[in-house]
Specification:
Elements lengths: L1 E4 L13 H8 L7 E5 L8 E6 L5 E5 L2 E8 L12 H15 L26 E2 L5 E6 L14 H14 L8 E10 L9 E11 L2 E9 L5 E11 L3 H10 L2
Antiparallel strand pairs: 1-3, 2-5, 2-8, 3-4, 4-5, 6-7, 7-9, 8-11, 9-10, 10-11
Helix pairs in contact: 1-3
Length: 246
């Protein structure tokens, strides 16, 4: 068994862990591509145990409550053309214009517009004009790296998470991460010029599907993901979330 702790810095909503970052921590118990199925909001600043599951695979547990199911996975993406730099810059700017004062989770570690430079990832993946892709540039910093100088896997999981939500392009409806499956082909170095892109792949009732990828400077995919998002229609929950995250 292994224990992990999601520090407050790595929140999504203020009171729970960012889904992608948390999933990346949980995935360390798997050697290779993994799928994380979130069952409950990951708690902050408290030990979470990673252990084998009675039904096979693994699980993340806190106080006998299963936070997530963990299993090996196979990830496939059919990526649309990567937009040019002007398109990505437009997407970044459009995101900030669109969410000004309206972001549901403005303190999210990945996409929060109220996180300071050097604190959050500040990935602002807006829609690229005339493209199904949402995208932004990303240059990872030294605080995200392991001792080998490469970016730690949980931050790549985080970077693949929120963009896949904004790629659904249904910002007026809140969706929460249900499942994230990630394959890291190569961990980037500190200071690498990267692009993060995501696109919608389908829907089934309240379930919405998307994929995302991180590209290096040669426009090669170095990490990829498939995501399932669950649309939330509970007015009381939405109001609670809004109140907690102002």
């Amino acid at each position: 068994m292994t224990e992990v702790v999601i520090k407050k810095r790595f929140c999504g909503p203020k009171t729970s862990g960012n889904g992608g970052y948390s999933a990346g921590l949980f995935a360390q118990i798997i050697d290779g591509p993994a799928a994380i199925m979130l069952q409950r909001p990951p708690p902050l600043d408290t030990p979470i145990t990673l252990r084998p599951s009675d039904g096979g695979g693994f699980e993340a547990v806190h106080k006998d409550q299963v936070i997530a199911k963990i299993a090996p996975a196979s990830i496939a993406v059919d990526a649309p053309p990567l937009p040019d730099k002007n398109g990505v810059q437009h997407a970044h700017d459009h995101f900030l214009d669109d969410v000004d004062g309206e972001h549901m989770l403005p303190y999210c570690f990945v996409c929060g517009n109220k996180r300071d430079q050097g604190d959050g990832l500040r990935l602002f993946t807006g829609p690229v004009p005339d493209s199904p892709v949402n995208a932004d540039f990303w240059t990872p910093t030294a605080d995200l790296a392991d001792d080998d100088g490469l970016i730690r896997p949980e931050f790549l999981w985080a970077a693949l998470d929120c963009p896949s939500a904004f790629a659904l392009r249904n910002e007026l409806r809140l969706s929460l991460l249900g499942k994230l499956a990630v394959d890291i082909l190569r961990r980037p170095k500190v200071g690498e010029k990267l692009t993060v892109a995501a696109w919608r792949t389908g829907a089934d009732g309240r379930k919405h599907f998307s994929s995302s990828a991180i590209y290096d400077g040669d426009q090669k995919i170095i990490a990829k993901a498939n995501a399932v998002w669950i649309e939330i229609n509970d007015p009381a929950f939405l109001e609670k979330l809004k109140t907690e995250n102002v």
